[in-house]
Amino acid sequence: MGILEVKNVGKRFGGLQALGDVNLSIAENSVHAIIGPNGAGKSTLLNCLVGKLIPDTGSVMFDGQSVLGRKPYEINQMGISRVFQTPEIFGDLSVLENMMIPCFAKRDGAFGMNAIGAVMSQTDIIERAEHMLEEMKMADKRHMTASSMSRGDKRRLEIGMCLSQEPRLLLLDEPTAGMARADTNNTIDLLKQISDERDITIAIIEHDMHVVFSLAQRITVLAQGTPLVEDTPDNIKGHPKVREAYLGETQTAA
Amino acid sequence: MLGLKKTDATLLIVVTILTVFAPFILNPFPTSSAMAQFNAGYPDLMQRFIIFGIFAIGFNLLFGLTGYLSFGHAAFLGIGSYAVVWMYKLLDYNVLPGLVLAVIVSGIFALAIGFISLRRSGIYFSILTLAFAQMMFAISYSDLIGRFLGTTVTNGETGLQVYTSDPQILLSAGETAPHFLGLVEMRSTYTLDAGAWSFDFNAGYYFCVVFMLMAFYLAIRIFRSPFGLMLRAVKSNQQRMSYTGLNTKPYTLAVFVISGMYAGLAGGLLAAMDPLAGAERMQWTASGEVVLMTILGGAGTLIGPVLGAGFIKYFENIFSKINDNVLHQWFAFMPDGLEDFVVFVIHPFIGKGWHLTLGLMFMMVVIFLPGGLVEGGQRIGRIFRRKDRNSSDAELDAAKQRNTPPAE
User: Fold this and answer.
1) Total domains in the fold of chain A
2) Choosing a second label site near A145 at 20 to 30 A (CA), which of A2, B10, B174, B357?
3) pTM for the whole thing?
4) CATH number for position A186
């Protein structure tokens, strides 16, 4: 029994069957990658997991509880954090404030009405945020406006924000898309470190095979809305079906 | 001081001093001089500075922090006025019960309007609030509720006012004007003549000042609170907020209600100064005015909305007072033909045309000072400091403008 159990999930957009019949089990404390060519339904699947989309059929269970019909903020409070393809951070706020907001969400829940006490007097929150910034090696940037940072730093901050909530499942949607090689390698190292040091399950959607093969313990290949194979990275590498899905050999033959 | 950090405490003290000494500051010219028409230190105008300051502070809590542009805030202003006049009609001329009722009723209306309008964001939110305000204006203007009930609720286009036939169950003998607990009448004014100068100290003005300082203090606390931080997060990235486990709806609704209560208080104070309430107070032009005040002063800054309110109310009164005769006096030194020409050119911008002047000034501010008058002040301050500026300084400043807490 994995921490995340996806059973018979299907999603249709008008005439397009985006997800056919997806079954997926993600083991606790593993790094699980979902790969597949463009249009395979990777993002649709992810959106079904975090409450942005509601699947037409099937069930999604997180730690024995159904996530279907819950709002994104409720699913997050259950312990699922999501990192976006383009870093989603609070661009107008300082780096420290960015880090404080998830700490507030962790402490006070989905809504806390403290309109009188000063932010600066919330020492537990500040300590926690500062600690997380240290861990992300961003302490020197704490007073920068978040939007003025490089893309790699924004990604780092976003991951740090997710981690500060101590989620049990971290979902990453193409975390290295559009990144320079050096930034990509930094992100890989960061994710490796996170997975080694913490009790956390990581599910990652990725195009970049270098990232996938250096991180994942299990890989699911998705094509045309259905899982093609699920196996270890070594077995996936030479798998004929995977080559077929990526290179479209049968299509050219037909 | 009062749980504020140093810069905020300083700001509060400066505002306190400016408002307390406003009767002096706004009357710098001797009463008989030609410049006397630029004096703004008469009670009616000073009260408006303060009341619209409160209105704009409240509006800025919503717009400046969350970015939700309400285009119907005048509805709450009108509700506040009606509530106070109704308390005059039922009880007596004491302003306190009315003000309490004004804040409560406008809060209830804000809760209902906000609950529906906040389902949408951006332009759709603005349109929804505008629609609600215009409906309420229409209902008040033709007193639809009153007609339905067969009585008077808003008294239609005449406006709600106190009649001798009203119950006024607490009225004591000789009570004819709004007062505070029977201690002092709002209209009572002490005039200090100092040589060629004359200064008016009006009870109603200082009554409003007390409320404005409380409102301003509360706004500072909200700005610096975790709640305020969440509101700025709403403006910055709602998607990240909900994927961080935060429900944005109650945050925006709470600030919408608070903001509506500020507007209700402002409307109540308008009726506390002058015991009348008319439907035109709810019209969309009044809603637009507070948007202008906030943007002109600097949305999202603490002092900006107050400056904007003062600026607009000052020019509304002063420019609309200037007429052709005054212009002819000013330009009398010119040859006749030239004088007539200059007066002809300036004529459209004064008197009833003051809106044209306001429009031009608004354009200038938005184009050259997107941060409003506050940004203008900061730029001037920067010139005086004449500091070598490197990029990290610029970042610090940018952070300051967004009210980021400074280094510990």
Assistant:
1) 1
2) B10
3) 0.91
4) 3.40.50.300
